[in-house]
Design a protein that fits this description.
With 497 residues, the chain is α+β, with helices and mostly antiparallel strands. It has 3 domains: 257 residues, Gcn5-related N-acetyltransferase (GNAT) (Aminopeptidase, 3-Layer(aba) Sandwich); 100 residues, no CATH class; 57 residues, no CATH class. Helices cover 43% and strands 10% of the residues. The strands form 2 sheets. Strands 1-2-3-4-5-7-6 form a 7-stranded mixed sheet, sandwiched between helices. It has a two-stranded antiparallel ribbon with strand order 8-9. Helix 8 runs antiparallel to helix 10. The radius of gyration is 35 Å and the shape is globular. It starts with 8 loop residues before the first helix and ends in a 5-residue tail after the last helix.
């Protein structure tokens, strides 16, 4: 309802919002705005050309919507119906509660009434009536490290229409001759937890870009958000390519750099299809992805949002090694981690294992073929290589490197899993001592050192080597016994014996 989104001028001032113009100044400012015939980024001709492209025109007509630049918006009748404060509230209410009232009011003021040349705004409106369905505000040089690059300052829209506004922004950056840097950057609010935003930005070519992280006032600095960028210099960015990204639901970006692997798994099923099962798994997965990023990239040990903190404090490793006999609080967690940084790595290992398990559960819930689990995928040495190595043991002792090769297997991990330690190969029938007994000589020597080994000469069980090593030792003893018997038979044939 309307009363839920409107705020008085006094409350807006108290919240740190923009200074509102007096009625006289407001009328004067509208007159100045209407003298503007063009815009720095969203030029009228570019937007008109985009709207006339075949597939785009069909899509806009099917939704009965249109793009509208600032110069067109100020010449329409919508803006005359409301005061400055009312206008901010009616337009800003599209953002919902996820965007603070002060932030959106300041952004709208900078893009419209302050006439700041580094800001520009594009609206999405219904063709019939005065409804504003969405808007995007772009700011040149928001990141001081990238003074010639446009950043998405704010984008708000009704469900499913944000891709049109963002795509139009990228289209204008690409084909606007006044723009020197064909790049666009943004901060994804709440990082992976903002799943619709993450999928939309990635679909339109944005990738994670940690080079944009900087101090406050220099570039993006908030660990709660995800810095992303896209470069539009490639030949693939044609007019039709932009339209395909914006209107075709089956379009999927190929050049994706997503270390989490979340984009590749796709959006969850609708609640009507699986009762919300896949959506519930994805919510857990993205929270864990946020935690992993905060610890790995920012070395964070505190200031976790409550829903993420609940996951950390319930982890088995945290209970056993970090909160031993202590209350499970963020201050205690931070104190222990900072005092013993060696605890971070095993904690991350457990998180990564949980994350991969959630990914497999998510794939299973969507009916996607699941690869073998890391513990089941083993690197098996070819059969011919094993036989060759075993054959060599009859004549020569095996070097330590070869023994390691034939007695160990390396675990193959999934996307975010760290490399684990190797395991000793399980003994197979090929490594057991052959059952056939070697013949013994009838001519025994008088000294015990030439006797064939018996059970009482075996190594005690507590020092028994692996089955393969045992086979090698028995083979060598048998060969030594055979040489001894041969020497005895040769000596027995000599004269005088």
């Amino acid at each position: 309802m309307e009363e839920n989104v409107e705020t008085s001028s006094e409350k807006l001032k108290e919240s740190g919002g923009p200074t509102l113009l007096s009625p006289e100044d407001y009328t004067r400012r509208l007159s100045e705005l209407r003298k503007k015939t063009n815009n720095p980024l969203f030029k009228n001709k570019l937007i008109h050309d985009l709207s006339k492209l075949s597939d785009m025109k069909k899509f806009l007509d099917s939704k009965d919507i249109k793009f509208e630049t600032l110069s067109e918006f100020t010449h329409g009748g919508f803006i005359d119906k409301y005061t400055q404060d009312e206008l901010y509230q009616r337009i800003g209410s599209i953002c919902g509660s996820d965007v603070g009232r002060r932030y959106r009011a300041n952004s709208l003021d900078a893009a419209i009434f302050s006439m700041n040349p580094t800001f520009d705004i594009l609206f999405l409106r219904s063709k019939a009536g005065d409804n504003v369905l969405g808007f995007i505000i772009a700011e040149l040089g928001e990141c001081a490290k990238e003074p010639n690059v446009y950043a998405v300052n704010l984008i708000c829209s009704q469900s499913g229409l944000g891709k049109l506004l963002l795509g139009a922004c990228l289209y204008c950056i690409k084909f606007n001759d006044d723009i020197s840097e064909k790049r666009c950057i943004l901060e994804l609010a709440h990082a992976y937890k903002n799943t619709p935003g993450f999928f939309m930005y990635t679909k339109l070519g944005f990738n994670l870009d940690d080079s944009l992280i900087g101090e406050e006032g220099v570039c993006f600095f908030d660990i709660l958000h995800l810095p992303m960028s896209v470069t539009l210099n490639g030949d693939k960015f044609t007019q039709q390519y932009f339209v395909d990204m914006m209107v075709h639901s089956d379009f999927k970006q190929a050049d994706v750099n997503d270390p989490s692997g979340i984009y590749e798994l796709g959006l969850p099923k609708k609640e009507s299809e699986d009762g919300g099962k896949s959506s519930a798994i994805q919510k857990k997965m993205v929270k864990l992805a946020n935690i992993l990023r905060k610890i790995k990239v920012f070395n964070a040990s505190d200031k976790f949002p409550q829903d993420e903190w609940e996951i950390i404090k319930e982890m088995p490793f945290s209970k056993k090694r970090i909160f031993l006999n202590k209350p499970r609080s963020q201050p205690n967690f931070s104190k222990k981690i900072n005092a013993k940084p060696e605890l971070v790595e095993p904690l991350l290992d457990e998180m990564v294992r949980d994350f991969d398990k959630l990914k497999r559960d998510y794939m299973r819930s969507k009916g996607i073929n699941i690869p073998l689990t890391p513990t089941a995928q083993l690197e098996v040495i070819p059969e011919e290589e094993e036989e060759m190595i075993l054959a060599e043991t009859v004549a020569l002792p095996i070097p330590a490197e070869t023994q390691k090769k034939t007695t160990q297997k390396q675990l193959i991990t999934m996307s975010m899993m760290p490399r684990r330690t190797t395991r000793t190969r399980k003994t197979t029938s090929k490594h057991r001592t052959p059952s056939k007994k070697m013949p013994t000589s009838k001519h025994k020597t008088s000294t015990s050192k030439h006797k064939t080994p018996t059970s009482k000469h075996r190594t005690p069980s507590k020092k028994t080597p692996t089955s393969k090593r045992s086979h090698q030792m028995r083979t060598m003893r048998t060969m030594r016994s055979m040489r001894t018997n041969t020497r005895e038979r040769t000596q027995a044939t000599q004269p005088g014996l």
